[in-house]
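Q: I'm building a small set of examples for a reading group on sequence design. Run inverse folding on the following structure and report the sequence directly after it, with nothing in between.
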């Protein structure tokens, strides 16, 4: 399975996200309207009631910042190849296990969506624990452990979902996709525009001999670079700006192009110096 988490920093995100989760046309499992809606540390049975409780819980927040995370949109996705083996009962059980392992002290709503056999679970999660004010944020290491533990639970209890097993923590750096891009990819099986753009950059990067050569190759492909804060920050494609970081290329990976050249030049100088010393003593 794949787990994706996107943060939201506005109080209005609760209502907007829950409305999408509960009213989207892809929520029903089949013609018999099979589905579920798990609520954890929430009372009532309607969006308005849940939204009010999510917002009220914010009064317990211990640390207030301008960029505080109010809610997270979390998605658990399964491979289309496992569609015939997935049932509503399995998805509900995995949702409850996810909540248990994620942090049972949080506030959650979980519902399944189904679109052309793309089975996935949406969760609206509070940014802080229920009535403690402690943050619900997961660090990279904690998220990796959560993914591994939940997948192990899936493997042991539902071995038939073998096509949904992935190697968490060992995958290469990928471009960061928005919710819309992620859903498009899972629904159609096609690479998004961002992923296609990242592939173009990867091709230029692998053949580049320096940072400047990398930028030059991008320009040759019709990808103009742009500057922010005094440094080359990303590329422009179809009148839209894309950050290098969002395409999977960190500052370090780009700077490494020049470091490799510099190191190669240093080694060549040492080699030449050694050869001159040998010739001198012959």
């Amino acid at each position: 399975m794949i787990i994706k988490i996107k943060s939201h920093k506005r109080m209005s995100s609760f209502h907007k996200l829950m409305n999408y989760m509960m009213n989207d046309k892809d929520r029903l499992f089949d013609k018999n309207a099979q589905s579920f809606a798990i609520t954890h540390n929430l009372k009532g049975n309607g969006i308005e009631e849940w939204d009010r409780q999510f917002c009220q819980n914010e009064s317990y927040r211990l640390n207030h910042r301008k960029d505080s995370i109010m809610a997270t949109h979390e998605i658990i996705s399964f491979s289309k190849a496992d569609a015939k083996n997935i049932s509503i009962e399995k998805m509900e059980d995995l949702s409850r296990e996810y909540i248990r392992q994620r942090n049972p002290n949080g506030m959650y709503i979980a519902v399944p969506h189904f679109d052309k056999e793309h089975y996935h679970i949406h969760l609206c999660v509070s940014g802080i624990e229920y009535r403690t004010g402690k943050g619900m944020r997961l660090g990279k290491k904690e998220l990796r452990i959560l993914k591994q533990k939940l997948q192990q639970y899936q493997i042991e209890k539902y071995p038939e979902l073998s096509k949904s097993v992935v190697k968490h923590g060992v995958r290469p750096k990928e471009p960061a996709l928005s919710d819309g891009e992620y859903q498009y990819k899972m629904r159609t099986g096609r690479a998004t525009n961002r992923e296609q753009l990242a592939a173009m950059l990867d091709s230029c990067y692998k053949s580049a001999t320096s940072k400047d050569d990398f930028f030059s190759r991008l320009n040759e492909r019709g990808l103009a670079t742009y500057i922010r804060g005094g440094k080359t920050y990303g590329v422009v494609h179809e009148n839209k700006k894309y950050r290098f970081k969002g395409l999977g290329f960190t500052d370090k990976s780009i700077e490494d192009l020049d470091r490799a050249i510099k190191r190669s030049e240093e080694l060549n100088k040492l080699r030449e110096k050694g050869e001159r010393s040998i010739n001198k003593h012959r």
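Strands lie at 2-8, 38-40, 71-77, 108-115, 118-126, 224-228, 231-237, 240-243.
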